[in-house]
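Fold Annotation — chain and its backbone

Fields — amino acid sequence, structure tokens

___
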Amino acid sequence: MCVCEGSALRRNFYKKSCPSAEATVELVVKKYIAKDRTLAAPLLRMHFHDCFVRGCDGLVLLNSTATNTAERNAIPNLSLRGFEVIDDAKAELEKKCPGVVSCADILALVTRNAVVVGSGGPFWRVRTGRRDGIISQQNEVLANLPPPFAIFSQLRTSFERKGLTVKDLVVLSGAHTIGNGHCAGFHNRLYNFTGKGDTDPSLDPTYAQFLKSKCTSLTDTTTSVEMDPKSSLTFDSHYFTNLQAKRGLFQSDAALLTHSVAKKVVVKQLEENSFFENFKHSMEKMSEIEVLTGITGQIRHHCAFVN
């Protein structure tokens, strides 16, 4: 089992080498969020997608080359957005402290700040000192990212491999309280759940009809809907309320109610402040999965290219 490897990270890693690093990232995030609050969710998703493939090493930010198709071009990553925020923050830091602050650290800091500023989410500790990976391969994405149609056993295995618990799985799934989901991630639940043209019986019928009015066929690949209806811009525990009402958007959401321990964790998140406190702890763990530190990896000069 892979475990979180954040022991070499520390608070204020750049205190001497680039004192304004974290403040610079915060200013860039505030600039973008002021224009587009919806960026919080895709940046959070980008961080998750980065950490689950080879660890939190910024590899999801790399462009493909003539000889290599990178993670960024894998099917689950084609809908990622917000790269310009990372690139802008990196450019500002390169002016002030060339070759010092890693893209992996920038992504971790940008994500935290975007969730706080853009959606009112909790502020969690980001220890820094990550270095950037250099090997980014498209075929590793599907092998490591849990898909939206995963059943509970698949989800648990995927998270356990990264040193994360069932509690972390449930709590981090709560990130679906903000943002949108594409029809392609759940339309099988509406139109062909068991291969017989049926609807997932675990889905609330009224909600299923609503989703069918938005995603009109199995061939709809462009439409998206709010993952947390009427609350998709606000970070709150409403996702878990929806889940209990059988209104979780993805099969992977509904799967959390099929396991006794996970189901208890779902209920627990609805207690006052529980979700925010638990989310902070789980994000701190997730953001330190299999990090590169010391002399491993490199500090990329541009986040889309290796040096």
In short: The mean pLDDT is 96.
